[in-house]
Structures are given as structure tokens and as C-alpha cells.
């Protein structure tokens, strides 16, 4: 189980949507394709809370999802 996967499963308890989106963005820049894919899943899990994100955070999360086909 990758750390980013644990974050995806538990971020609602410990992080704000903005913090989770930031982690997804950083993890999405990894060279490891599995981490990038899981980061897109994290970004996807944040999108239901898009109303709490800045426009840039929302746009980046959508872009990550689109790049990975999430």
C-alpha cells in the first residue's frame, strides 16, 4: 500500500480539501507512474469539494484527472 493511497483513503479526516489537492499536485509530478495514477485518484476524490478550492486548485485537479483518465 503506497502512502499516497493511504492519504486518498483518509484525507477527509486529517486534511482540508485544499491540502489534499496540494498533495495530489505534488505527487502527480513523480516519475513513478503508479504514484502519478494514485495522485490523480486523490485529485478526483477532492473534486466533490471543489467549491472550497481556489480556481487554480480546481483546474489543476481536473487536469490531473484528464491526464490520467481518472
Polypeptide structure, described:
With 70 residues, this protein is mainly alpha-helical. The chain has one domain (3-68). It has 4 helices and no strands. Helix 1 (3-14) packs antiparallel against helix 2 (17-27), helix 2 runs antiparallel to helix 3 (33-46) and helix 3 (33-46) packs across helix 4 (55-68). One of its GO terms (cellular component) is Cul2-RING ubiquitin ligase complex. This is Shikimate kinase.
Estimate percent helicity: over 70%
What is the number of independent domains?
1
Mean pLDDT: 94
Give the SSE string.
HHHH
- Give the CA-based shape: globular
β-strand percent reads under 5%
Distance between the termini: 19 Å
Number of alpha- plus pi-helical segments: 4
Radius of gyration over all CA atoms, rounded: 11 Å
What's the total number of strands? 0
Largest sheet: none
Structural class: mainly alpha
Regions with little confidence, pLDDT below 50 for 5+ residues: none
Protein name: Shikimate kinase
TL;DR of this structure?
This is Shikimate kinase. The protein has helices spanning 3-14, 17-27, 33-46, 55-68.
Strand and helix layout:
Blueprint: H1 3-14, H2 17-27, H3 33-46, H4 55-68
Helix pairs in contact: 1-2, 1-3, 2-3, 2-4, 3-4
Organism: Angiostrongylus cantonensis (Rat lungworm)
Protein name: Shikimate kinase
